[in-house]
Design a protein that fits this description.
Length: 153
């Protein structure tokens, strides 16, 4: 296991943005070139470690590839009600990558029979297919009907 960094260096790297500030606050321990590298490493550990891992993988001959579909759309269907008993409302969320791009507020479906409900969901899927190229829901999850945001207003 590697040695833990000096707490003074960690504090200095996180709280003093410029080198002049760090020199002024800690003149007894600041060493030009060494501290510049150490401060960068302590401020950005995720980037430094990712770069190290990529270099190691490249040395082993393993090539890393970028995600193939970073901008792909996916849809999630939220069903308010009790699973396999009744459906109170349906909500839809559309994500592009990991970012929520569109959201349909819950639509109450009380009074609809099963065939009508299935037709409504099929109509949603047809719309998603034509607009976004989504042919199925990425995730379908059930929520309690008490959590319906339309009823709480």
């Amino acid at each position: 296991m590697p040695r833990k960094p000096n707490p003074t260096c960690v504090y200095c790297a996180k709280n003093y943005r410029t080198e002049e500030e760090a020199k002024a606050k800690h003149p007894e321990c600041y060493v030009g070139h060494n501290c510049r590298i150490k401060r960068n490493r302590l401020r950005n550990p995720g980037q430094i470690n990712a770069k190290r891992r990529a270099n190691y993988a490249r040395k082993l001959g393993v090539s890393t590839i970028d995600p193939l579909l970073p901008e792909a759309y996916r849809a999630e269907l939220a069903i308010y009600g009790q699973e396999n008993q009744f459906v109170h409302a349906l909500a839809l969320k559309i994500y592009q990558g990991n970012k929520l791009t569109h959201q349909m507020l819950p639509q109450h479906t009380q009074g609809l029979r099963q065939p009508e409900l299935e037709a409504y969901i099929q109509k949603l899927l047809n719309y998603l297919q034509t607009e976004y190229g989504i042919d199925c829901f990425g995730l379908i999850y059930w929520l309690k009907s008490e959590d319906c945001p339309e009823c709480q207003m």
